[in-house]
């Protein structure tokens, strides 16, 4: 038996191909949307992986440091280091800001990393693609290659300038902003540093406050001003564990004895994926549903139109003894063919357009496979209307009168 | 009378019930022998199409008896379970317009019926080509329907009606869209094929040009048929 659907498609291939291209662009957008979500999740996981930490110690009752702000004194890490099972504990600060790059600026996450040994201190970039790690206590930076900085470039953070000594790759925040690593002390200062006018105004207010400027207490004013001009806080303490120690047990121990909030890797992933990007995921999910409905409507309309164009031929086919299932199969095969053409066009579109998006778009093979089957299901469902109409055609319509 | 060909006795078709009942056919009797071409003529609304649909097993009569060849297909109810297979294997249709499948070439348009009946593609196409040759359109075997003239399309449609060698062909105004010359050519072909394949052919027509060619004519008016001898002019 010949393929009626195949012959019809070959006969009107232009209509099918151009409709398939239109549908394919829609499917391409759908795949990219899924890729945007995957990219967000992957950014979050990359952030956790690259931190090199087993535990995140943050301000009590916060979801810090990525989902909420968290502030800890920078000497807390010493107490944590003394806890059983803790191998390393290092202060880290995170500050999302615009870093000046020549005449323009670039949105980055500035990470303050504590001095330490490469590979042993959590928070450091685990590998470089060019240059070296930070070796000085001030004014050196390692930048993600996505920032556009090159080795030797000068970048400005607040009032200080830093020289880029190393470049890394795929070091991004949970929102996809590339990271710039600078020494912890500089980062603490950057979080707090004000412009000259603001400093002058602050000092003037403090001097005018009789509580701080007592004639009988020399040195008090200077001490207060000094305390206002320094920052002894960090956002989190990253902890690595000694071999053989369970993260949950060490985390519970720190919670109990240091009265701090501690997250394991799994918990932090839940926060990033389940809370930080949950709204974005829902947004993307809504778009995917709408795009699926629009795709189904388009396929249904096209198949319905193609079937309407053949209503007399269908009546003749039924009159001369064609089985209903042969006619239904013809319509369904055409819908599936349309879906396959659309998916191929969509996949090609998504693959070539993904790198052009400003944020990371991760096209997963599983999503493509799931998308392919979803397209097939949508096409089959969309063809039902046309099939119902075709099966209702009375073979007597082929006979006049 | 029974035997080969198609034979109908007291066939009636009623639409509606009670006070609103309308009889489209009233005790119609008809016999068409194998190899015979008869005309069925009548004004619009006389019941021609209803009779054709009953004969074609498309709609169910209300009462009567129909015999196709040696097989009783209707006797106050269908005696055949699979009407679709009956239409495919035992009844050929030729329509007012050719209604060829536009996305199949000429050969496959004709070969489709045997393929639907489960005959292998190669054998079906061989049958189709044989008929196309008989109808002198074998040179257009690979052409698409849109590439054929009106006369060629109608010949292909006749080939499709004949390909399963049905004992009866129902032709619904097959010459309506054709000029006189082509209309006469189609009628000549139908007569030739009827003789060659021992097929009973019923031609519904309004076409004054071809009416004199029939040896027997059934007039139908208000659902009642009257048989009369035709002139049989062209084919004596």
Automatic annotation (TrEMBL), chain A:
InterPro entries listed in its UniProt record: ABC-4/HrtB_transporter, ABC3_permease_C, MacB_PCD
Limits of the MacB-like periplasmic core domain: 21-256
UniProt-annotated location(s): Cell membrane
ABC3 transporter permease C-terminal domain span: 286-395
Pfam family name, one: FtsX
An example Gene Ontology CC term for this record: plasma membrane
Keywords, alphabetical: Cell membrane, Membrane, Transmembrane, Transmembrane helix, Transport
Transmembrane regions: 12-37, 284-306, 327-349, 369-391
Membrane topology: Multi-pass membrane protein
Ranges in a coiled coil: none
Superkingdom of the organism of origin: Bacteria
Tagged with keyword Ribosomal protein: no
UniProt name for this protein: FtsX-like permease family protein
UniProtKB/TrEMBL annotation, chain B:
Gene3D superfamilies named among the record's database cross-references: P-loop containing nucleotide triphosphate hydrolases
GO cellular component terms given for this protein: plasma membrane
InterPro entries: AAA+_ATPase, ABC_transporter-like_ATP-bd, ABC_transporter-like_CS, ABC_transpr_LolD-like, MacB-like_ATP-bd, P-loop_NTPase
Record keywords: ATP-binding, Cell membrane, Membrane, Nucleotide-binding, Transport
Domain ABC transporter: 6-236
CDD domains: ABC_MJ0796_LolCDE_FtsE (cd03255)
GO molecular function, one term: transmembrane transporter activity
Domain of life: Bacteria
Pfam families reported for this sequence: ABC_tran
PANTHER family xref list: ABC TRANSPORTER ABCH.1 (PTHR24220:SF86), IMPORT ATP-BINDING PROTEIN (PTHR24220)
Name the record gives this protein: ABC transporter ATP-binding protein
Organism this protein belongs to: Zoogloea oleivorans
